[in-house]
Amino acid sequence: MSAYDELMRFQHDTEALAQVAGRLGWDQETMMPRGAADQRSDEMAAMETVLHARRIDPRVGAWLDAIDPETLDPVGRAQVREIRRSYERTRKIPADLAARIAKVTSKAQGQWAIARANEDVAAFLPVLEEVVQLKQQEGQALADGGDVYDAMLQDYEPGMSAAALDEIFGAMRPRLVALRAAVLDRPAPPALAGHFDAQTQMRLARQLARTFGYDMSRGRLDKAVHPFSSGSGHDVRITTRTSEIDPFNCLYSTIHEVGHACYEQGIDDAYLLSPLGQGVSMGVHESQSRIYENQLGRSRAFTGWLYGQMRDAFGDIGIADEESFYATVNRVHDGYIRTESDEVQYNLHIMLRFDLERAMMAGDLPVSDLEAAWNDRFEADFGYAVDKPSNGCLQDVHWSVGLFGYFPTYALGNVYAGCLHEALRGAVPDLDAQLAEGDTSAATGWLRDNLQRHGGLRLPRETITHASGMEPGPEPLLSYLEAKFGALYALKAA
After folding, report:
1. 166-175 pLDDT per residue, tens
2. Cα–Cα distance between 119 and 123 in angstroms, integer?
3. Is 323 part of the annotated catalytic residue set?
4. Model pTM?
5. Of 50, 159, 180, 216, which has the highest C-beta tally within 10 A?
6. Distance CA 325, CA 321 (A)
């Protein structure tokens, strides 16, 4: 066998073991008994030790040195690029540190869930402090004297920097703030009101998952405290949550996670259990979940179809017609929760988190001051006070599991989705007519053919440029938001 063949055979098993580790995480969030938390943290640490050892195995370095990339086709060169990046990055992290991070974050995840349920920030802060310290050590090891936060961003968006994000967010923020102020100055449509049975929500959620192309024979839909997608290839699982006074929480969380899952399910089988057999970055991943959820799922055309499905499922929902339902789905309103935020305000929630986690990683924000810093920033940005921790610094699972550098990819995903949506509209001129029939196949098929099937073949920005035909930037997203909400709230007539 050639060095390349031996490397890919070895990498296949590493990727398979990583999928097993991911399944442990899925189980912890969905089905694991609470009393198993300590044992699970040991299991996760053991898996991370095995994976870390494989990723820095000296044979990987020898195989990489023996391979001449010029003898490989573009797929082979991309495989080697990704393996080399992982190898060089992982070698910088001591094995005992990687295992400690896996163990502590597994424990912290359980403690976060309990603290969130009990509205008890003090119970969570000690373990969060431990997570932050470990992640700072990891970031310092990766940074080689450079910026710690920039080093951590590479886990989620290779090639991105905090300075570049500052530039993007700086361009977005004034227009988003102005749009929000104009919208909130207009009369708001009514919120959905009533009682919506949880089991009925889940039946409709499964229908919506299939409507957007999720293959249930290679996946499943369960409930979790915080919705997420897990896995790749032929085993891609999603979760949602229900509220009997807010079915949109369940339905749009499901569509969002289906976007993630369809990306993974749509990747070419030739890349299965290889470095290219998964989404290339979290920003690109979020572009899929956000375009499914928002530009498609909250469009006037699709909500017209969804209105009928809601009435079939729940009976009278207190909304008179399709146009009123569209306005209610896209209602801009005060709220604390990022995942429940409207499109106008969502990115402002992300910018808050981006600034706070950068400060924590830099050591400028002690963990003991996090709640006060969050509450102060939220009130300054949104104009009202946080009422309880589960609506504030305890609402997200990310920091408990050490995902520092992840949050900005949500806003970056919106930027990417804006570019993709503009290109999709040009490629499928009768898109609205199809969505009005509940047919998403042309849209999801275009995304699969132009982006999803390629997996990690190209770098993140190249992936978006290849699919959309443009360099990614915030203008298409901002123009879409201003046009959509300007029409919804009659801003031009104001």
Report:
1. 999 999 999 9
2. 9
3. no
4. 0.93
5. 180
6. 6
